[in-house]
Structure formats: structure tokens, C-alpha cells
Amino acid sequence: MSSLRLSSDVGGTFTDIVLQEGDSRWTAKVLTTPAAPEKGVMQGVAEILALAGRSLRDVASFVHGTTLATNAIIERRGARTALLTTKGFRDVLEIGTESRYDQYELALDRPAPLVARPLRLTVAERIDARGKVLLPLDEPALHAIAERARAERVESLAIAFLHAYANPKHEQRAGEILRAMVPGLAISLSSDVCPEIREYERISTTVANAYVQPLIDGYLGRLQQELRERGFVGTLALITSGGGLTSIETARAFPVRLVESGPAGGAVFAAEVAARLDERRVIAFDMGGTTAKVSLIRDFRTESARLFEVDRAARFLKGSGLPLRIPVIELVEIGAGGGSLAGVDHLGRIGVGPESASSVPGPASYGLGGARPAVTDADVALGLIRPDGFAGGAITLDPEKARAALREAIGAPLGLDDETAAHAVYEVVCENMASAARAHTVERGVDASDHTMIAFGGAAPLHVARVAEKIGVPRVIIPSNAGVGSAVGFLAAPVALEIVRSAYQRLDRFDPVAATAVLDEVGREIRAWVEPASQGAPTQETRIAFMRYVGQGHEIAVSLPLRALTDADGDAIRAEYEATYEAHFGRRIPNAAIEILAWSVSAATAQDRPKAIAPVTTRIPARPGGSTRIFDGRAGAWRDVHLYDRAALSPGSTLSGPALIAEAETTTFVTAAFDAWIDAAGSIVLDRKGAAA
Amino acid sequence: MTFHGKIGLIDRQIMWNRLLAVVEEQAQVLQRTAFSTIVRESGDLAAGVFDAQGRMLAQAVTGTPGHINSMALAVGHVIAHHPLHTMKPGDVFIHNDPWMGTGHTNDISVTTPCFAGDRLIGFAACNSHVLDIGGMADWTSSTDVFMEGLYLPIVRLVREGVVDETLMAVIRANTRQPVETIGDVYSLLNCNEIACRRLREMMEEFSLTELDELAEHIIETSRQGVLKKIAALPKGTWRSEIALDGMDEPIVLKAALTIADDGIHVDYSGSAPMTKRNFNVPFCYTLAYTSYALGVAVIKDIPNNAGSLAPRTAFAPEGSILNALKPAAVISRAQMGLMLPDLIFGCLRQAIPDRIPAEGAGVLWNINARGPRTSPPVFGDEFRVGVVTTGGMGALPFRDGLSATGFPSGVRGGSVEIFESMSTVTVWRKEYRQDSGGPGQHRGGLGQIIEIENGIPETFIFGNNLERLRFPPRGAAGGHDGALGSVRAATRDLTVKQLHDIAPGERLVLQSPGGGGMGDPRERDRAAVRRDLENELISAQAARDIYGYEP
């Protein structure tokens, strides 16, 4: 078998394809075909293979990322789904948190639940918080449920009972009976999909799983078949929201885990770059057309979170979406991209985003009819983007249109000249991103000033240096191939899966036997899912306890040893918890008891971390390709700066900001605060002037 | 650096954004580290940053309206009691004086002067609702503030970086939940520390030595913004009143709202006098909900700060239930305070009918339960848990009201599974209450029906401090009233505000109120009636008799 590896990232507009063999890499972008995404994928695959002069038969593995699950939820194109829940609780899915995500809006919009009230069915049964049966499952009543499901042509059923995480028997029994009575009905159990306490999040996650299951199932089946027909004999794997690869079988059982896998690919890409450059503390910064995403990479590993919101009614407002309790890459996303629109509010404040110019009509400078200024227009007006050669020469920008839009929306109302208006937009969008990065680093208990930023996505290189200045980051790295980062990241992802299970314990009454039993059981389960995908590759297990002080609401993850726990581990776990707490929040709480809410086991194949490349020893001042004028907002004046061609720079080349480094897809703005050099891998490295190297 | 010229303007905007981000961060830290269930699950907290004169520059949107203006004033009280020149780096002040904080002793306020070197640059302040501060703690039976727990005047909790352990010991000794309450005090300290650090960093980045000019910019821009919004409103005075259950007799609240060029003033003269019961309202809390009601109805997106709050004023005569004096019992002041938006909307609806909703459930339907953890009971081993639930919001003139939504408080509802895991009770039912949304062209939001029983053979205690059990949320413009709330157990009526024993095997049944409807129900879009019927949100009878719906 060859070492040829293929990956595809199906996005909203473009499908990115990457083919890799050793150090050679081919990339392609084709339009996404929303009605049948596999068509676009197959077309892109054909193109790239032709480019490389290879055939599908030569491909050893194909890693696939898809937004199909996300889009099905957002566009409500999923299966006809019903929910079976505990009698008395049919509205949990709709009542939600009973809160208002925007305190100053009386007419709030909420996303419609994925299952409307008539299909939210109930059955008498009840299990208590300790897993004890209070009321047996009314099995005869399931006949009526089955009939109802048939009559209503239900394709997929979510079964989610109260406290099923503590005792799954009723769910399992109901699933068994209904599966027998309604052949062909897809069934998702909450105790499988999300065995965690909190009924709203668990039910919501299970329903989303059921909602996308038939669709994903059909899609993966067709894709597999198409690939086989064209001679593919390698392994097909899917990327999950947690940034791990998973088998087709797992993806079919837990399709909800495929939601939000694109950003995961980006974070994995950043982790890969971090490993190659031996950067242990990294802030990954991904700025594209409509959003910017910030995540942390510690010791080359992405961080995970356990709750994600999809289909937000108000963009980026927490609480306005449907909650999914799945392992996701921990990241913060804000509405700040090249296409984000700028304007002045009634207080005279300049705002940027979250509204975006999208690709149609696009920023004003595209000349496609857009009249409102976008971030890209500000970049053009400041001279940071040269009008010709934008996006690889696909679009010629019109700086006068950019200036006119800025003048009308910003300059005129505030009495600013065009350049100052552009500078203001630039500063505001950088500040917004810096705030997001700052909040994220604080929340994770780290100090940005000893981190390196890795920037990717088309708009990142233009803004990252200023963001780095604002949050005190001394070093920024702009790797090559940043434009298709997610698809490149997919190829670096390990086979991995995580399962979290709620099982309560007080640490002062630590029960190592019970804890070990839960961990072993989840471990067996996880290996059963992971082994078919890992194909004999050795896997590494990780065990985590989610803990908090008794009475608190926010849990902290503490790593556990990979062996049967003993009484002595209680103290070690406490010490570890308190140290982590102190790192996050400053002070530990004296005398407070600690509780363990949930346990997580994940298994992952050993990641083929690239070896750190040798540092560049000789540094030679680079020769500028020319000079260009940019507007220096601080000084309020235009100034000439050197312009470099990235392709002409070689490892060891150095230069000093302010300067621009242009390449086909984007431009890197080296601000006056930074020096730049090219490392052995061809990355642009910005080092803060005067900082210790 | 200069504050004049074009760049000054941009920097000022950036710094304003920064302060808004700082206070959100402060609030997030507070919420994540809080022990109090209502803070961590429901966000009953406030956080803000102030200039060196004590003028509020930014307040986190995370939090509840009850703290909106009250926290802003709290810092002024701190400065009045501890002059600026006596404050040292590392000092932190604490208090829970209801009249100088947010209206009851359960809310602990912590104020931290922020220093750059030895120069005072501003303040970070925050508060949160602790679970227990001693006293009767049953929410219904106190008759003066001294029965409502430990009363902390404005004192130093930390002196030059050293925590006052004597004071901590006093707090610890005066609460039934010492670990959680002390934990919450630490959580308040930590979040202010972070806010001060951020403030210092910002001033360093922009080479500022003091905040005065930035403060002027924020305050003046916001004030002008609010005045501009007010200028677009019709001018005049409108009156309204609202009747509430109260305890011994109904309580009538009255308001006269005047919109003038220089602001909006609400005069509560004529409202009921303060009572012997515990739902008297310190004026700071009256002001908070007055500011909020005006904010959500007409001011909306202008951030809360000293400037945007200034044009919103209120008056209630001393001794009024809305300006209760010490030592009145005030612990349940939310029962009146949360109704002020409906009262104010009653005035505004006459002036700007196109955007004001009908009345809603208003108060939260907190289910407070306590009882032994085991059967037979062990002395001292008791659970004491509350879960937040809600009723319906009033319909707007252009759309239905939201069902089961906390307005105006904005706190989150709790999880049944968490509630059960912390107690011995079983919730058998929690779902929409059919026909509870006030009928109208636009229907009021639905309330909920909730059934609870003890899971062990012991009695548990339910504290009824709910409102809208006698006077329903009123409809508007021909819309019908929302359904009245009710509290029953088996065959007993538990409407009376007090502690009720719920016997083993007995089911407590709570029905939260629905929101008022708007407009004639017979004018309701037929497709909307059919959808409500299909969804069983209304009964066939209501569809026929009230909506005049012929299938």
C-alpha cells in the first residue's frame, strides 16, 4: 500500500481537497454541491488525482470532514423525528433554560425545537437521581407509541428519559421493543449519545443525533459506494467535532459528533504546526471571511469543551442556540472576518460585524455592488492589500470604491478622512478579536504574554500582528498552506473518541472501586468503537475526572492515572484539582469539599507528530521586492514601507517592520513592533522587537 | 496621550469596548466560581467598573436587572463611608446593607479600589446572591430586617492585601452554609481582582494616568444617546396602577410616568405604604427595576453607566412600600420589584402602544424546598434547595408572548435532574400548562404545570412566596388575561404565602401564570389558532369559545 493520503473539507461555499504523500502536497478547491455533497467531493478528488497523476486505487486513506450535519440542523432538513420521553416532560426540549439571552430585547427569537410538540411523545416510567426505579416502564403503552410512529411516518426516534445517565435500562428496553415493532426506525438513546446529567442538554443532543442520523447514514453509504466503485480500497474515516478521526460505523451511530468538524480541522492544523516548530504554548488564530476563531494549543494538543451551541438565533449570542453536549474543540468564535461590515451606531460608536458582506455582493472594493464597507475595504484603503492579485488574482479590487464606502458609512458621520476612517475600522476589528482572545485565555487560566500565535485563514496575516500587540503576544507564526488549513489538519488528526459519563462521588468519601468500575466500563465501550477505525494501530487511553467544589457549577478536568485507582489516589486527585483551580481562579477555597460529577475516557492512536525542524542558523537580511505606501494611523500619515514577495524569501531571510509580505492568497502585515524571519519550514515568524528571542 | 483630535476619538472607542469586555470577563469569572446555585445556574449577580470618583463606566450584561442601578450607587456609599484618602492598595470592602446594596441581605457586595502603584485609578465592584446569610431564611415570615440574617455594614474585608479573618469567622458563624458562603465571598474577591488587573493593563497600553477624560466621554456620549431616544418619544404624563396579592391584603402600586426633554421620571406616590411583611422594597431596588423597565422598552442598546442611567429618575415617598425604611423586612422585595416593569409598561402603553407588551407572570416561580435527607431523619442533615421556574410573558402588539420565560429577571431556569440530585424530592411533571396563555390576536406566553412529591416517606417543606395567585397578568387592547397562578396539594389550597408541610405521598401542584394576550382573540390568524390547537397549547373548547375557531 502506498502512503498516499487524501482529505476533504466540505464547507458552505467551497470543498477543499488535499492530497499528501510524504512531503509532497497537492491542494484543490471546488464548489460545494449542497444537494449531494459527495458529487463535489468526488469531482475535487478526481481533479486532484489528475493533478498528481495518481488513481484512487493508490490512496491508502481518505479523511472526510463535512458540514452536512450542521447544515441539516440549521436548515431543518433532517429526518422526520419524534421524541419519546418520560411522562410529564414533553416540553423540556422547548422550555429550555427559560432565560432570555438578550436582556434588552422583548421580542426575542428562539430557534424552533427539532421536534414539534405533536411528535414529542411520553411514556410512564421513572428513575431517580441515584438510578433507582421509582416507576417501572409501561411496556404495553409502547404499542400505541409504535402505532403513532408508523402513522406519522416517523423516520427517526430519540428516546431520552430522566436520569437515564444513571440507569439506562428503561431506555434500552424501550429501544428494543420499538425497534422490533417498527422495523427500519432509526433509534438514538440518550444513555448512549450523551450519558450526562442535565435533562435539557441531554435531550437536545439526543434529538439532534436522531434528527441527522438517517441523512448522514445515507450520505456515508453513497460516498462509500462511489469510492469503492472507483477502485478505492483504503480506509475511510470521518473527522469529529473533537478533532479526532472516527470510523464510518461510529459516525453512523453518533452523527451529532460530526457537527462543527471544520473548525476542529483548523485547530488540529495549528497543533501540527506547533509540533513542527516546537511551540508548546500556542494561541491558534483563524480569521476567514465571516468569523475569527481563537483556541489554545498546549503541548501540541488542542483543548476540548463539552458543550456547543448550534443554530444560534442571534449570531454569537450565547444561549440563543440549540445546546449539544458533545466533545468539541474549545474555541471562541466571533463575527470578525474580512467580509464583516462596519458602521456607526447612534452613539457615534464604530462597530464591526457580525453582519457580513458574504461573497455576494462582497466588500465594496470587489465592485460587485456592495456599498457598505467591510474589513477588507479598510485593509485596501490603508494600503495593506494591493488591488491587483487579491485572492490569487481572482478579483481585482477597486480602492476608490472602498474609500467611498468608508467615507459614507464612517468618515462623514464622524468627521474623519477616508484613511482615518479605515484605520478606525482596522483598530476596532483588531480590538474585538483581541478581547475575544483575552477572554478566552483568562477563562483557560493562561497568560497570553508567554504564548505564540499561529495564524491561518485568509484574513489572519493582515491583522494578527496588531492583535498580538494588543494581547502582549511576543511571537506570531504564519505557516504556509494556511488557506486550506482545515483539510491539511484532517490528515494530521489521530483516530480518537471520547465518552463522558455522569457518576457522582464526593472526594472526601472517595470510592476507588466504584470509580475504577465506571472508567473500565467506559474504556471497554470506547475501545469497541475505536478499534475498528484504528486498524491495529496502538491506542493511548486518557482518563479524566470532571470535578468541582461541592456547591459550585463549573467543573475542572483533572487527569487520572491509567490503572485501577486506590484509596491513596484520593489525595493526589485533590492536590491536582486544587492546583488547577488556583491556576484558573487565583485562590483555592479553604476547607471546601470536592465532588466528581463525571468521568471521561478517550482513546486515540499515537499521533505522528512531525519532528521539530532544526532552527535556522544563518540569518540574512531579505531583499525587498519593492516598496509600497501604507497609512500609519498612529502618526496620521502615509509612509513608504518595504514590500516583500513571500515566494522569494528563503529560510533565514530576515526583515523588519513595518513591512508587507505578499503572496498569492494573502498579505502579511508586519507592524512596526515586529521583526520577521523565515524559518526552515517556510513559515513567516514575527518576533516582537526588543523581546528576548 | 491626547484626547483631542481624530486618534483620540478612536482610542476612546477602543477603550470603551475594552471596559465592556472587562466587565463581562469579571461576571464570567464570578459565575464560574460561585457556589450559590442561583448565581451559577441562573446568573443572579452583577459586576462593574467605576472611575476614581465612583461613577460607573461599564456594567456586565450578564446578571439581573435588580442590580442595574443599585450596584452603581453602592460604590458611592462605600466612598461616603470610607473617604478615598483612607483607601490603600490591597484594600477590599464588603457589605450587604439592603439600603446601600441591592435590597436584601442575601446579596453581598464587594468593592475593590484599583490602584496603579499607590495611585487610585478606579473601582471594581460586584455582588451576588449567597444561598444563606442566616436569619429565618424562609422567605415568608420575617417582619423586620434583623430577622433576615447577618447585617454587614460597609467594612474592610481585606486590608492592604490581608484578609480580615475575624470578619470571615463572623460570616462563617452566621450562615447555615459556611463553606459555600465563604466560597462565594472569595469568588467575589477574585473577580474584582481580575477587573482591576485589566483596567491597569488598559491604562498602560494607552499611556493613561487617570480615567477622567475617558469617563467623561463614556458618560456624556451615553447620556446624550439616551436623551436623543427620549426626544423621539411623545411628551406628557401617563398614570397606571397594578394590584398584587400581597399577604394580608392586596397591595396596590401606582405610577405617574412623565416623559420630558431632560429625561423620564416615574413617581410612585399613592402606592401602598410599607407593611409588616417582608416584601418591602428599599428604594435602590425600586430604582433598579425602574431603570431596567425604561431601558428594555425605550433605551435598549445603550450600555448601562452613570451617563445612561442619569436621565432615568424615580420618586417614592419615604415609608412607601417602594421606599421602605430600615428596619422594614425586605428579603422578598423581588415580589414587588419584579412587577414594576408591568406597572411602568401600563403607563408607556398609553404613550407608545406599538412596542409595549401586555402584562406577564413577572416574579420568578422559585420552588424552595427543604426537608430531611434521610428517613428516619437525622438531626441537622437537611437539604435546602431552590429551583427557578417561570411563567409566561405578555404578548407584544405584533407577536405572541414567550412561554415559560423569566421576565423581567432574566435568570435561567434550573435543571430538574440537578434539583433532584440535591434533594429527596421527585418532580413528576413539568410542562406547558394548556390554555394558560392569555387569549388575544397575539397570545400571551404559557405558564407551566409542575408536580412534586417527596421520594422518601417524610414530610418536606415548601415555602410559598409566589405572586399572581389572586391577580392575573392582564391582557391589553382587547386581549384576555393570562391564567392565574395556583398552588395546591392534593385537596388543599396552598395560596397563602407561608411554609407548607407536604406530607409523604402528597403531590404539590404548582401552576405558573400565563402572560396576558393582546388584541381580540377572534382576530387571531386562523392558521395560528389551528397550530396552537395541534400543539395542544389551547383546548378545543378555548379554540371554539374564545377564538371562535371553526375547524
Brief summary:
The complex is a heterodimer of chains A (693) and B (551). Chain A contains 16 helices and 36 strands.
Commentary on this structure:
The complex is a heterodimer of chains A (693) and B (551). Chain A is an alpha/beta fold and 693 residues long. Chain A contains 16 helices and 36 strands. Chain A has 5 domains: 4-73 and 218-258, 2-Layer Sandwich (Nucleotidyltransferase, domain 5); 78-212, Rossmann fold (3-Layer(aba) Sandwich), CATH 3.40.50; 264-493, Nucleotidyltransferase, domain 5, CATH 3.30.420; 496-605, Dna Ligase, domain 1; 620-688, no CATH class. With 551 residues, chain B is an alpha+beta fold. Chain B has 2 domains: 5-223, no CATH class; 357-551, no CATH class. Helix content of chain B is 29%, strand content 22%. Chain B contains 13 helices and 20 strands. Chain B has helices spanning 5-33, 37-40, 70-81, 165-173, 178-205, 212-231, 283-299, 306-309, 334-337, 340-351, 416-421, 526-534, 540-545, and strands spanning 45-51, 56-59, 92-95, 107-116, 119-129, 155-159, 162-163, 236-244, 251-260, 263-267, 312-315, 365-372, 382-389, 425-432, 448-454, 460-463, 486-489, 492-493, 499-502, 508-511. In chain B, the strands form 4 sheets. A 7-stranded antiparallel β-sheet of chain B has the order 2-1-5-4-3-6-7, sandwiched between helices. In chain B, helix 1 packs antiparallel against helix 5 (178-205), helix 4 (165-173) packs across helix 5 and helix 7 runs parallel beside helix 10. The N and C termini of chain B lie far apart (72 Å). Classes of the chains: A alpha/beta (693), B alpha+beta (551).
